[in-house]
Amino acid sequence: MDLHPNPARDNAQLSLGRTKARKTTVIVGGVAGGASCAARLRRNDEHADIIVLERGPYVSFANCGLPYYLSGVIEKEEDLLLSSPAFFRRRFDIDVRTGHDAVAIDRAARTIRVQPGDGPGYELAYDALVLSPGAQPIRPPLPGIDLPGIFSLRTVPDGNRIKQWIARHKARRAVVVGGGFIGLEVAENLHHLGIQVVLVELGDQVMSTIDREMAQPMSDAIRAAGVDLRLGTRVSSFEPGARGRGLKVGFADGSRIDTDLVVMAVGVRPENSLAQAAGLALGPLGHISVDARMQTSDPYIYAVGDAVEVLCAITGQRTAVPLAGPANRQGRLVADVIAGKRRGFRGVQGTAVCGAFGLTLASTGLNERSLRELRIPHEVVYAHPRNHVGYYPGARTISMKLLYDATDGRVLGAQAVGQDGVERRIDVIAMAIQMGASVFDLEEAELCYAPQYGAAKDPVNMVGMIAANAMRGDLPIAHWSDVGHDAASILDVRTREEVEKDRLPYGMHIPIDELRARLHELPVDRPIHVVCGVGMRAYNAICLLRQRGYRASLLPGGFSTWSHLNPPEQRPAQG
Ligand code: FAD
């Protein structure tokens, strides 16, 4: 079996290529988008010539598993290798060429120049070209960024370099720069190895795709695990450590720390060099522009995955979501388009999940920050239900946030954080968003229930019910941000014991069971914003108050949401 390219044959094919009945598709990039496209293309067309060019040593490897390979949770390199050129040849008759860099496209001739690692370069003719070149980790141009011991994590060789460095230098300290999902996963896995981790993030929260109060429990969990999380901190330089051992990481405030290694996880930029040099249209941030068929500005060239910008399914605006799901779906879709099927990409909505330090954080759709920036009218509710009924052992709280269009109830986004059952709820809402569903659909959703799995009113139903009550005018919703510290406006209906333990620094307190007897203490001439632990008792209080002529509204999510919005270090001083 000839797995190696034969430049003579390829050049012969170049001259003869397009007179043959067999169509040749060349795919650049053999991992998420590229490998999906190749396999689907073969399923669609038994007679196509399919060539995959991959500059790295592996095809179809599990880059999402790399953080867990660092710690040994995924034990062996082979566990990350989902396929091989030999498998692609045997099962699909696909010609996968690893170690082959696609270096230039001649659009007029419809050829691509290929550079094998050590052999002579050659040209390949294509009838269709698919670009799935992925993304590059961003390496900010800081002084010392190229020093040994400063890594990024994108490929299996990257993972091996980090593992070897840790072993060779008996690393005990690490700095991880970037508090996104890769930074968190790397920090957790280094921590798992017993390494003392400093996690540095420029913003004032981890996981910037999620609203700050929803990411707060993750920050708390990171710190509780003993990781030194430094928010609002800018790395400014790297220097060799004393006596040539390790590194010194400098910060913008002038401070420095010693470490044994640094992992940069500050985001990715699209790998667009081929596309740019070929004059394909690019978006404002350098992503390859494509239409709904993933066709670039050249009708013979398609592009998928981290390198492209596509439409946001909710706003219709151009956006980029560098995640494996979109890359795989787009690769599959392009294979259908090339096979002549009518397909169109639905757009992305940014559904994502990150598990670290015992918590799961997941989201779908737009966050509140984006909705505000885009001036999309929206409403917000929170809930803190259990993942399953409280009477079955092991119930855990899931904190949920639902964002919806205040005019028609269409669901715009959701976020959740907790220990169990988080991703299931976000997946349900992700599908609801894709189907254009409203909060009334979430209220009515018929979901799995048995005591160990959920509740007869599932957390998805719960957020839907709160929002549907608000939409129908049964439950006016107040915003924590609007309430300010107006002591007179807030009514806390929790028990005395709860209030003694966790006091709101403002507002009045009447336990719900005393409310009917103490109504005379409440103002009739101004709004009352009612709060309890998570919202349920406040809802009952509001029903009571409104029927008795008071202007009561809900502070959604109760004290739990307040405590996420106001982490201890930012709380107003107690009077
Ligand atoms: P890739 O899968 O990166 O494939 C691109 C390939 O193209 C690369 O192998 C590259 O070598 C090759 N290539 C580039 N240029 C050329 C060229 N000129 N010639 C030949 N070959 C070329 N996503 C999730 O949804 N969930 C996760 O949990 C998750 N975890 C991740 C963890 C890590 C550490 C990383 C790095 C990524 C993670 N991702 C995750 C993101 C996900 O891996 C990417 O979104 C996805 O792989 C993108 O697919 P792609 O085909 O666009 O690019």
Low-confidence stretches: 1-20
Percentage of residues assigned to helices: 25-40%
In CATH, the homologous superfamily of the largest domain goes by the name: FAD/NAD(P)-binding domain
Main pleated-sheet profile: 5 strands, parallel
Mean pLDDT, to the nearest integer, reads 94
CATH topology of the largest domain: FAD/NAD(P)-binding domain
Q: How many distinct helices?
A: 18
Give the neighbour order of strands across the main sheet: 3-2-1-7-19
Cα-atom Rg, whole angstroms?
27 Å
N-to-C span: 80 Å
Broad structural category: alpha/beta
How many extended strands?
30
Overall number of domains: 4
| CATH level-1 class of the largest domain | Alpha Beta
The distinct ligands, each listed once, are: flavin-adenine dinucleotide
